[in-house]
């Protein structure tokens, strides 16, 4: 990922605000799918900017996982609320409802979408967009996606989605790390959706090339990703949610830690350092999460430092780490999706809900490949060849939907 910077980069919301008629047409009553991390390039919140846009009437808010604040705990249902400042209704898309109600769509001419995509299939904002597009196809409501950079750049890596494992954690038929922006994902989804046409418009970025570093200042897209290094590690450390390890949620360093009460940090740092994983350094650390896995317990383990972002392949790195842990630490275990709080919620087991049975890591990764690699039931070379083939097929399928150069690419040597 090149060093990049703000420079002259402008976001899709800036394009919409400059020429609203180009993207909204005659649509004037709009709903906004966003959160407080949604900002214009000059630092205004998208909500305020849309309210001030002449001829646009913002009448409702739709909120993804983590709510409007963007800082509610992961996997925690968010209720409908009313915005305290502007009095706008907030319709949660992360609770019993995952698609907007028909009545909400019928009350507006268009839905403006402005959320930050990370670039990993199990990051749920893209699923929320796909479900919105499905609902909009039925109602005839226009959807305008205001594009933002893919925070992980253009690398395509990891397994394709096994349809048998489709869920809210893996809904789109793209590789685990897909290399597209949210606008490109929307274009690809609409182009391949079997459910009929959607009135989609994408307001593009300008001044951005795939692989540029995110423009400054850094704005966390969700509570677990407070830094760019957390984003860089996310495609690997998200696997820890599927086993009995803490990834640092409930600490100041989410998605930068790996630990458990049954590990010893100094020994683990030596063991993982000896693996020679490109791009990473490990230092021993003890920590006590205040939420999530091992809440209130002291965990021993390591902090992961990204020392070469260009060399790092986070998913492959974590497969090696988990393979070592499973082989050398008998306390290691996978977590079953049925143990998660969402397994008892309304809608559990539906395709638009999180998985409620089987190993959670399979739901996170969209199939059994990763678990089979860690357990030594599959040959790494065979799996990597299959992933590389899926990456090339994805890039070919996505080519008509691309908006930015260069094209996404599979990792070198894949």
> Mean pLDDT score, rounded?
94
Oligomer: single chain
How far apart lie the N and C ends? Answer: 18 Å
Q: What's the CATH H-level superfamily name of the largest domain?
A: Uncharacterised protein PF07075, DUF1343
How large, in whole angstroms, is the Cα Rg?
Answer: 21 Å
Unreliable residue stretches:
2-6
Number of helices: 12
**SSE order, one letter for each helix or strand:** HHEHEEEHEHEHEHEHEEHHHH
Helicity level: 25-40%
Largest sheet: 7 strands, mixed
Strand order of the largest sheet: 3-4-2-1-5-6-7
User: Can you name the CATH architecture of the largest domain?
Assistant: 3-Layer(aba) Sandwich
| Tally of separate domains | 2
In CATH, the topology of the largest domain is named Rossmann fold
Q: Which structural class best describes the helix and strand composition? A: alpha/beta
Number of strands: 10
Relative strand content: 5-15%
Identify the CATH class of the largest domain.
Alpha Beta
Shape: globular
Summarize the structure.
The chain has 414 residues and is of the alpha/beta class. It has 12 helices and 10 strands.
Question: What this model shows, in words?
Answer:
With about 425 residues, this protein is α/β, with parallel strands linked by helices. The protein has two domains: about 10-205, Rossmann fold (3-Layer(aba) Sandwich), CATH 3.40.50; about 230-380, Aspartate Aminotransferase, domain 1, CATH 3.90.1150. The protein is built from twelve helices and ten strands. It has helices at about 10-20, 20-25, 45-50, 100-105, 125-140, 180-190, 230-235, 265-275, 315-330, 360-365, 370-375, 380-400; strands spanning about 30-35, 55-65, 80, 90, 110-115, 140-145, 200-205, 255-260, 280-285, 300-305. The strands form two sheets. It has a seven-stranded mixed beta sheet with strand order 3-4-2-1-5-6-7. It has a three-stranded antiparallel beta sheet with strand order 8-10-9. α5 crosses α6 (about 180-190) and α7 packs across α9. The two termini are about 20 Å apart.
């Amino acid at each position: 990922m090149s060093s990049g910077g703000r420079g002259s980069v402008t976001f899709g919301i800036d394009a919409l605000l400059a020429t609203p008629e180009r993207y909204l047409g005659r649509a004037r009553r709009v709903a906004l799918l966003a959160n407080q991390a949604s900002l214009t390039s000059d630092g205004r919140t998208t909500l305020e900017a849309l309210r001030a846009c002449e001829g646009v009437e913002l009448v409702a808010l739709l909120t993804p996982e983590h709510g409007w604040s963007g800082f509610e705990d992961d996997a925690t249902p968010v209720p409908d609320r009313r915005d305290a400042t502007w009095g706008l209704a907030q319709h949660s898309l992360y609770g019993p409802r995952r698609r907007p109600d028909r009545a909400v769509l019928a009350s507006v001419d268009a839905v403006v979408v402005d959320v930050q995509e990370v670039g990993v299939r199990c990051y749920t904002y893209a699923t929320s967009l796909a479900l919105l597009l499905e609902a909009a196809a039925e109602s005839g409501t226009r959807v305008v996606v205001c594009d933002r950079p893919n925070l992980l750049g253009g690398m395509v890596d990891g397994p394709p989605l096994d349809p048998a494992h489709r869920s809210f954690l893996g809904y789109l038929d793209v590789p685990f790390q897909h290399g597209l922006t949210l606008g490109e994902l929307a274009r690809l989804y609409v182009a391949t959706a079997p459910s009929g046409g959607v009135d989609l418009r994408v307001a593009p970025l300008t001044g951005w090339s795939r692989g540029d570093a995110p423009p400054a200042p850094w704005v966390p897209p969700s509570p677990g990703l407070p830094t760019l290094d957390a984003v860089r590690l996310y495609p690997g450390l998200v696997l820890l949610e599927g086993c009995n390890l803490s990834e640092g949620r409930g600490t100041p360093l989410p998605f930068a830690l790996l630990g458990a009460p049954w590990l010893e940090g100094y020994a683990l740092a030596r063991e993982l350092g000896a693996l020679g994983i490109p791009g990473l350094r490990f230092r021993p650390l003890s920590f006590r999460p205040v939420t999530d896995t091992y809440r209130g317990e002291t965990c021993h383990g390591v902090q992961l430092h990204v020392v070469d972002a260009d060399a790092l392949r986070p998913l492959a790195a974590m497969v090696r780490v988990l393979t070592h842990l499973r082989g050398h630490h008998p306390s290691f275990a996978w977590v079953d999706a049925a143990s998660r709080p969402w397994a008892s919620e309304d809608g559990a087991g539906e395709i638009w809900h999180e998985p409620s049975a089987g190993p959670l890591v399979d739901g996170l990764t969209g199939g059994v490949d990763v678990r089979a690699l860690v357990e030594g039931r599959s040959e790494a070379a065979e799996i990597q060849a299959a992933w590389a083939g899926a990456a090339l097929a994805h890039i070919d399928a996505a080519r008509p939907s691309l908006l930015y150069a260069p094209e996404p690419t599979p990792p070198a040597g894949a």
